[in-house]
Amino acid sequence: MPTCDNCHNKWNWKQTIKRTTTLDPAMICPYCGEKQYQTKKSRTKTGFLIMIVLFPLLLQFSFDISVVILLSLFPILAVIFCVYIHFSLN
């Protein structure tokens, strides 16, 4: 989990996801209110996750795959997302 550079409190999972899914590059610490910024490594991991999420949409537009097949990809994407969260927040 991310730790605030100012107050050294660890953010919980919900706070982390909420802060990293916004378009604003600055994340405000929920404990002390100071601005925090993602590291380059964290931004790279987030970009990778976005590509994984958008991949089924690209498949749909490129190959005209049925909705049933796309919906079957969601459990796989959920597992990938969980693994991503586990490794990126440790």
Keywords:
2 domains; two-stranded antiparallel sheet; mainly alpha; single chain; 90 residues
Quick synopsis:
With 90 residues, the chain is mainly alpha-helical. It is built from three helices and two strands, in the order H-E-E-H-H.
Low-confidence spans: none
The biggest sheet amounts to: 2 strands, antiparallel
**Roughly what is the average pLDDT, rounded to an integer?**
77
What's the tally of helices? 3
Quaternary state of this entry equals: single chain
What is the number of E strands? 2
Count of folded domains: 2
What proportion of the residues is helical, as a percent range? 55-70%
Strand-and-helix sequence, N→C? HEEHH
Bulk shape: elongated
Measured by DSSP, the beta-strand proportion falls in 5-15%
**Radius of gyration, taken over Cα atoms and rounded to an integer in Å:** 16 Å
Question: How are strands sequenced across the largest beta sheet?
Answer: 1-2
Distance between the termini: 6 Å
What structural category arises from helix and sheet content?
mainly alpha
What can you see in these coordinates?
The protein is mainly alpha-helical and 90 residues long. It has two domains: 1-38, no CATH class; 40-90. The protein is 60% helix and 7% strand. It has three helices and two strands. The chain has helices at 13-20, 40-63, 67-88; strands spanning 26-28, 35-37. It has a two-stranded antiparallel sheet with strand order 1-2. Helix 2 runs antiparallel to helix 3 (67-88). The N and C termini lie close together (6 Å).
